[in-house]
């Protein structure tokens, strides 16, 4: 039981969604504190969008319970919709309408009082940087501008919670960074932000994360907690000449579990303790005439953690599949 339910914007227990025999979301339980940025991280098809649609009252769960903004996700879906903002990766804008006409449309949808409509419209236009484009058709806007306009339309009614489903998919890196500045601003004003993403660098911006794989929540915590508490192995960063060729060589070193290209070098997953394996790595590369400039244990990246957890999950399932077969 929660000691202070009012401090949580989202609470779900054993949330499940089935489509026929396919389990899209498998008994997910999580809590999101009011005012935090919570990231839902996972590969495409992991169940992120299905989960967010249940939380927004757009899909009825097959099983499980939960509340969003204090309202029951099964019994009070319409009340939830009035207290949240929702932005899908499709942006939900009407290309044939102008910027102002899109805002006017959503003002009607959200029943913004007449006395506030003009002020809220101006806020969105200023926030989105569209002062010079207020009468432009939305179809001609860049991806970054559409993104900011979609966010503005989603929060016209000043909801306490906003759900963002892959909001930066398909936009350039500069627009993505600018968008996250807006998210920080909203969170600073007390808005709870629940965002799904498959970009590892975006996950670093979140206060807490839930890692989702095959419909299951396989880990949750702050980025630092995930890196320090959920990684069962050590990571050694190796910088050397011809890393692509070195990759296959290192796979044969005792104690090395996995090797992957990472930037201009290699991330080597090793059995603890790393110090015991580093010498063997350096010796093997020297034997094969690879010049090594660095071979040191590092704090794992979120990508390292996620890949490690996924592989561990797959190893758990493999014996079950063999028994079932």
Structure overview:
This protein is an alpha/beta fold and 325 residues long. The chain has 2 domains: 5-227, P-loop containing nucleotide triphosphate hydrolases (Rossmann fold), CATH 3.40.50; 232-299, Alpha-Beta Plaits. Helices cover 38% and strands 28% of the residues. The strands form 3 sheets. The chain has a 6-stranded mixed β-sheet, sandwiched between helices. Strand 7, helix 6 (173-188) and strand 8 form a beta-alpha-beta unit. Mean pLDDT is 89; it is low at 1-5 and 321-325.
End-to-end distance, in Å? 40 Å
Give the mean pLDDT: 89
**Number of separate domains:** 2
Described by its quaternary structure, the protein is: single chain
Number of helices: 11
Q: What string, H for helix and E for strand, traces the elements in order? A: EEEHEEHEHHHEHEHEEHEHEEHEH
CATH homology superfamily name of the largest domain: P-loop containing nucleotide triphosphate hydrolases
* Rounded radius of gyration (Å): 23 Å
Largest sheet: 6 strands, mixed
At the third CATH level, what is the topology name of the largest domain?
Rossmann fold
Structural class: alpha/beta
Helix content: 25-40%
Shape: globular
* Assigned CATH class of the largest domain: Alpha Beta
Spatial strand order of the main sheet: 6-7-8-3-9-10
């Amino acid at each position: 039981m929660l000691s202070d339910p009012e401090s949580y914007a989202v609470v779900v227990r054993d949330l499940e969604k089935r489509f026929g025999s396919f389990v899209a979301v498998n008994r997910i339980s999580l809590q999101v504190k009011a005012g935090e940025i919570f990231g839902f991280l996972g590969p495409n098809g992991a169940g992120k969008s299905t989960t967010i649609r249940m939380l927004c009252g757009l899909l009825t769960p097959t099983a499980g319970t939960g509340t969003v903004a204090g309202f029951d996700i099964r019994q009070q879906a319409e009340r939830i919709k009035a207290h949240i903002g929702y932005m899908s990766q499709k942006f939900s804008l009407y290309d044939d309408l102008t910027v102002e006409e899109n805002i006017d449309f959503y003002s009607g949808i959200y029943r913004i009082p007449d006395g506030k409509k003009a002020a809220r419209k101006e806020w969105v236009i200023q926030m989105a940087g569209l002062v010079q484009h207020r009468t432009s058709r939305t179809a001609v806007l860049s991806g970054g501008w559409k993104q900011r306009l979609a966010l503005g339309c989603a929060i016209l009614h000043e909801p306490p919670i906003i759900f963002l489903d892959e909001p930066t998919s398909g936009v350039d890196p500069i627009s993505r960074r600018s968008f996250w500045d807006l998210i920080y601003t909203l969170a600073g004003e007390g808005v709870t932000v629940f965002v799904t993403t498959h970009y590892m660098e975006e996950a670093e911006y979140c206060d807490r994360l839930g890692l989702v794989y095959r419909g299951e929540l396989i880990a949750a915590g702050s980025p630092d907690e995930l890196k320090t508490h959920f990684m069962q192995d050590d990571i050694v960063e190796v910088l050397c000449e011809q890393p692509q060729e070195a990759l296959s060589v290192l796979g044969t070193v005792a104690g090395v579990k996995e090797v992957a290209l990472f930037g201009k070098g290699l991330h080597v997953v090793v059995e603890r303790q790393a110090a015991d394996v580093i010498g063997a790595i350096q010796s093997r590369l020297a034997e094969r005439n690879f010049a090594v400039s660095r071979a040191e244990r590092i704090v794992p990246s979120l990508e390292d953690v996620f890949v490690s957890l996924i592989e561990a999950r797959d190893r758990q399932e493999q014996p079950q599949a063999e028994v079932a077969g």
